[in-house]
Structure formats: structure tokens, C-alpha cells
Amino acid sequence: MTDRLDRQIAFLSEADKLKSVLRASRLHDNSRFENSAEHSWHIMLFALVLADQAGPGVRIDRVLRMLLLHDTVEIDAGDNPIHGTVDQAAVEAAEQAAADRLFGLLPADQEAAFRALWEEFEAGESADAVFAKSIDRVQTPLANLANGGGSWTEYDVSFEQLEARVGRPVRRGAPALWDWLTPRLRAFFDT
Amino acid sequence: MTDRLDRQIAFLSEADKLKSVLRASRLHDNSRFENSAEHSWHIMLFALVLADQAGPGVRIDRVLRMLLLHDTVEIDAGDNPIHGTVDQAAVEAAEQAAADRLFGLLPADQEAAFRALWEEFEAGESADAVFAKSIDRVQTPLANLANGGGSWTEYDVSFEQLEARVGRPVRRGAPALWDWLTPRLRAFFDT
């Protein structure tokens, strides 16, 4: 049991580093960049509050676990802004190596379970992953609307690019959320 | 539905402010104070990883929801360091007013459900709340050990005070965690 606890606490201590991984998005009050740990908390709150937007078969408690874990690989691999230009194959290789190392800190049963949940999120095919990904995408537009542009301004994003990169996954998992956002986004991008 | 979504998104936007509520604890690397949003994410990860420490009848998914919500009242009421001296009645009144306002942003059904879950956590009597409170308490000692003292140094805390303020709730919900910590804490406080 002690070896098990040692491993679990080694993982939990390492996880503290996610609080120092900065995203391209900023807080609603524009005071600073958001980090991936507080982002993860916020989107779990989104998933719980907006659970009635989930499609048939979605299990919110599984979605919460998925979102709790979804960014831990960024401790090694960093955050890759959706509007940035990246070598997708290199990012995926870095994230797989990060998952090997980080989940590998855990006891084997938890390593397997967490890895499987993260892979399911990444694949974005199951009902739970589709909803989790829509929720993950919907938070930053709200922040950018609140703080006057945020990562859209920084990356010179057009409404059409936003539709393709963010609208598509949000509509796939939670269409009413994109309908709610669209007039607000149009008002921002039209001015 | 639109009014419902309006209310839900008003709550989620207001929740962003939890990222600016600073705690007395510091990150493991000692770089800055921790905020209550990233703390909430971290202890949810603790609860998931350390679920095998939970007593009979504990439902981890309920514990996760409880921990997701447990600090939102700090947006209005602020964080009250466990080693600080506070007027407990004043803190409770401020937190109740905060819960009125913040959960009151939500649709009535969610307001009632979230408020009930938060009150259950605060009461600390149900099996889920006892475990949630032990998990909430166990993260900061690990951070303080990592960063060389943190809030213990700042508040001039003795091992006996720590035993009473932190050890008691941790032992109540997850005794093996306190057993694991004790020799490490003694080594710190004895030097």
C-alpha cells in the first residue's frame, strides 16, 4: 500500500506543474493569461452546469473525469493554441511521450484507466468525448468576448476561422451553445 | 431555453473570478501563491487518484462534484486560511450571502442542487463530505513540504497546531494519508 501511495502522491505532486502551463487565452478581466489547471476546473464547471446540452448517452460524471485529466500531458508537451500554427504530428508525438511519463508515475491499474480516458478524449469519437470537446472549446470564446478579443486579436482570427476551428467541435457536441454564441460573436467581429 | 442558458452562462462567467482569489498556500515550486480555481482542480485530481482511500459508501463522482463547487463562494467571501485567525460567525455569514448571490445566478433547479451539495460539504457529516474535506486538507501540506514551509512558515504553525487543524479532518476521512504524511511532517518540523 505504501508503494501504491508513494506512486499516487508522486503523480499528484508532479501535476502541480499544470498550474504553470500558460494558455493563449486570458482571464475575463484581462488581468493575465489563464493556466491549464484553472482552465480545467472552469470547463468542468461548464460541463456540470451545461449538462442538459449533452446528447443522448452522455454520462456527465465520465465527462468530468475526462476533463479533469485532459490537459495533464501539457506539463511536458505544453499548450498548443488552437489558432497557432503547429506541426500536428510533432504535437501528438510529444503528447504521447508526456502521457507515457506522467501516467506512468501512477500504479499500473490507474495508469491504464487514465490513459484510456485521455485517449478517448483525444480521439473525440465517443458521445462523452464529443461533448467534452465541445465544452473544452466553448470557454475561451466567452473569455475573449469578455476581455475584448484576447487570443483572437493576438492571432488575428477571422469569424470564418473561428467557425471552422471552434464552431465545428462546439456544434458537434452542443449545438445550442454555438447558436447562443453566434450573434454575440458576429457583433464582435463585425465591429 | 435561452433564458436558462443566459442564466447558466452568467454564472459560468462570474465563476471566472475564482481564478483571482489567492490562497495562503504556494505552488510546489514556490513561484507564487495558489488560486482557488487551480486548487479546486488539483484536489479533484487528488480525490480521483486517492479514491481507494475513501471509506465505505463514498461515491467518488459526488465527491468530485462537491469539490468542483466547494470554493465558489470565495468569489465574494474570499479565502480564509486555516492557520489564520478569523471570526468564524462572520465568515459563515459572508459565505451564506455569497452562496445566495452566486448560486442565485443559476436556474432555480440548479441553484437548489448546487446549494445543497455545497451545504453538505460545509456540514462535513455525510460520508462523501467527510472524504471531500480530508482531500481538501491534504493538498497544502504536500505543497508546503515541497516548497520549504509555505503557509506554515508564514503563519508560524507548530506540528501540534497542524495535527489539530489539518490532521484531524484528514484522519477522519482518509487515515492512511495522514499516516503517510506524519513522518514527513515530523522530519520537517523537527529541523
From TrEMBL, chains A, B:
InterPro entries, A to Z: HD_domain (IPR006674), YfbR/HDDC2 (IPR039356)
Any GO MF annotation of the entry: metal ion binding
Source organism of this protein record: Roseobacter ponti
The HD domain, residue ranges: 15-178
A Gene Ontology term for the protein's cellular component: cytoplasm
SUPFAM superfamilies tied to this protein: HD-domain/PDEase-like
Lineage top rank: taxon: Bacteria
Keywords for the protein's UniProt record, in alphabetical order: Hydrolase, Metal-binding
One Pfam family named in its UniProt record: HD_3
Protein name: HD domain-containing protein
